[in-house]
Fold:
Amino acid sequence: MAKSRTQRLAGRIVDLEARREYPGYVEWRTGRIVRVVADPAVRSRQLIMPGLVDAHVHIESSLLPPAEFARLAVVHGTVATVSDPHEIANVLGAPGVRYMVRDGRRTPLRFTFGAPSCVPATTFETAGAALSAPDVARLLADPAIRYLAEVMNFPGVLGGDPALRAMMAAANRLGKPIDGHAPGLRGAQARAYAAAGPSTDHECFTLAEAKDKLAAGMKILIREGSAARNFAALEPLLKSHPARVMFCCDDLHPDRLLEGHIDRHVRRALAGGADRFDVLRCASLNPIEHYGLDVGRLRPGDPADFIVVDGWRRFRVQATYLRGDLAAAGGRSRLPRLRSATPNRFRARPRVPADFAVKAPLATTPRRTVNVIAALNGQLITRHLTADLRVRGGVLLPDVRRDVLKIAVVNRYAPLAPVAVGFIQGFGLRAGAIASSVAHDSHNIVAVGVDDAALAQAVNLVIRHRGGLSVTGPRGDAVLPLPIAGLMSDRPGRLVARRYTALDRAAKRLGSRLDAPFMTLSFMALLVIPDLKLSDRGLFSASRWGFVPVAGPAAR
Structure:
């Protein structure tokens, strides 16, 4: 709780709005800054500056609820997040959104939640809940919900989908920002999308695409997370358009969060030669202004939210203050450990290996051509390949030698729905399987493995725990249970990070060459990101905006 006596901290004050740095001290009382004073007598070289803000993150992807996410994030100077509760909404609907708001309010870190606009993300998959336009309007009317979260159905926006138009109109009436999500959109289509209402985009993976969207009036979020990493491609924007750029992680697994957050973006940008005040504006003031966040800017009268950094060269956060209280110091969180409730929706029953067999239609030859998802390291997008696979006993066999493995999606909301199975390249497993109930966006169970028995074993480990991540292989089985909506753990963050790291290593021992195999796996069912993905209903091509057969004449 903020102390009633006046407190003071001396160092070099970083005034981002005036773009200057000077020796002085900050005074605050009862959670608000009283004075910021220039004092040439101050000799301390530590930097005192506004705290850092993640401009777009799915808290659920950290595998932690908000209260526990905060304990890890404050260590890195994070004082606020703009958080899209889209993941839990796909499992639990509006009650899931309200769960995130309640849990986040238990900590001093400022969580700003949006109303998810695409639940389910498409009509081509089975989610645990749906949010209609009236549902979203009711969420937006809640003062705790500050914006309309990423409008992923950009074909619907361009086509004038009535429900999306109603959601955006409700946000406009309330003066709440609309977040965009339009990977690959260029030129006239980008202009039409922006004109419909979305004002930001975090999905640009080329500089040319980002420039098109900037020209359309949008602001660009430079994303560097656990699966999608676009910093290198978009870094020039820090010099050309610093007033219209923000930093975000989007999806950040606990091992990465343990190591860094938006401070990692800042270090990289400074090392690349960008202006220090521009960089910090992207990391702090730009999102505060765009979203109207109730976060201090290091001015008299502001909330006492600020950080202490050792210097510009290393940019290591030494302390984080939230509402005047010390939230982290010396690499350790000062926030208390709070247990979170564990709401869930999980009805899947155990599976047998035969459930994962892929029958070869009209199998009159020993080989058939199949459509193959090509997973890309560090990207959410995939490519559409083909491969010739052997047929034995009327079923198609994976080809481990050529890294053409099986991928499966199991509906977790219906007890015995058919399993969708396809083929995938890029995971590199030589044995066993991995599985996850974190499977954007509907969060069914997604698994990749070398054979049907391994797939069944990995999937059943997840089912047994009503959600989690699992690995099965010659060295045995391992699982990280996720009892909160099948997305988050109720255990301490550092423990979750260690267990996740152990699973990551186990997957790599099986042969995976991906930097983050579980994060990549979680996006293989995300239909709105091109091109080929797998939902619980079948193989889907975003470029065709429809299903394609696993094998047969349509294979290209």
Observations:
- The mean pLDDT is 95.
- The CA atoms of residues 170 and 369 lie 48 Å apart.
- The longest helix spans residues 493-509.
- The chain has two domains: 52-294, 353-547.
